[in-house]
Amino acid sequence: MTVYCGIDWAEGHHDVALVDDAGTVAAKCRIGDDADGYEQLLGLLAEHGDTPEAPIPVCIETGRGLLVAVLRQGKRQVFAVNPLAASRYRERHGVSRKKSDPGDAKVLANILRTDMHEHRPLPDDTDLAKAVAVLARAQQDAVWSRQQLTNQLRSLLREFYPAALEAVAGWQNGLCRPEARAILAAAPTPGKAGRMTHKQLCAALKRAGRKRGIEAEADRWRDVFKAPHARHPELVEDALGRQTLGLLRQLDAACRTVDDLTEASEEAFRQHPSAEVMLSFPGMGVQLGARVLAEIGDDPARFADTRAVKAYSGAAPITRASGKQLYVGRRRIKNNRLHDAGYLWAFSALTASGGANAHYRRRRERGDWHSQALRHLFNRMIGQLWHCITTRTMFDERQAFPLPLAVAA
């Protein structure tokens, strides 16, 4: 008799339930979130027929953590069910809205018993792909944190130090530049900035790693600082300067974190066998390729076809039909990280591929907005990418974007 396992996980303990084909609870227990608890769980599974050749499938509401890593050893299938979907399954067993951790474990086990074919197990990615996913997601989170700190610093400088914003206005993401951070650390207030000499500015630029144009850059900063600006009282200005230094220290740490994680993620991505195929696509850089690989993985059996990849990335539209009503629009339930990477990828491909640019122009001529045309382009290219990865072929511009018959003739 087949046995199914459901685990309701928590921070300090986990509730386990085993049910058979008839829905009868074969066993239930509570284990701790430690090595002894994991051994107890594996022993319980072995008592009910778990073997390396035919492991018992497990349903849980998360796809990460040490517990999942222990369960995924060998051929075991682990199904990560969305907590919202699990709550809907709970309503099938009663309308009283009662809830308990052992009851949730039983519900999860029954999901596999009745609807196992409707859910997908966690992908069997290689260890290298998992490492790329960890580093790429961490790098993206670090970029978002750096941007939040940059926005806070920009908002603060706008209130009392507009000269600093004027000096970095010509640079893209100027407050994150090492030169700007070094000068602001030496002159956190307009008063100190006005007293800085040309030699001090040159020294700050050299500490930031500047090699060329130091004299001209120092003169530019000095002219901006010497221009007349409105000022706060001295005590208030000094207090705001202290706040600026605090944000600068956080921004320095965030910038170093982004640089370290970027280097690590790119190094890991270049070691992957799919890196050469992915980098052959127009607009696909090393960091962007690492983000895409982190989300789609390298398990060839993860997606049934290219339509599944497009739906997972949010590029394919969704249809809602009921009676006489028909709605076709963009997909809202999707992998947001992959969707964001796809937007950047499609935008970069406009200048790197003539076929991609022509496809985008045709969509605009049909009435699509900019984001709609980019999403349609991403929908086409993500399918081509998955095909090339599974078949181990390089990108071919003529096959990806064939010319119309009239133009070809």
What does this structure look like?
The longest helix has 37 residues, at 234-270. The termini are far apart. Helix 9 (198-207) crosses helix 10 and helix 14 crosses helix 17. Strands 3-2-1-4-5 form a 5-stranded mixed β-sheet. A two-stranded antiparallel sheet has the order 6-7. Strand 4, helix 2 (66-71) and strand 5 (78-80) form a beta-alpha-beta unit. The protein has helices at residues 35-47, 66-71, 83-90, 101-115, 127-160, 162-167, 178-186, 190-195, 198-207, 214-226, 234-270, 275-279, 286-296, 306-313, 336-352, 354-365, 370-391, 397-400, 405-408, and strands spanning 4-9, 13-19, 25-32, 58-60, 78-80, 318-322, 325-329. The chain has 409 residues and is α/β, with parallel strands linked by helices.
Oligomer type: single chain
Across the major sheet, the strand order is: 3-2-1-4-5
State the helicity in percent bands.
55-70%
Distance between the termini: 65 Å
- Count of separate DSSP helical elements: 19
Main sheet makeup: 5 strands, mixed
Note poorly predicted spans. Answer: none
The arrangement of helices and strands along the chain is EEEHEHEHHHHHHHHHHHHEEHHHHH
Shape: globular
The radius of gyration over CA amounts to 28 Å
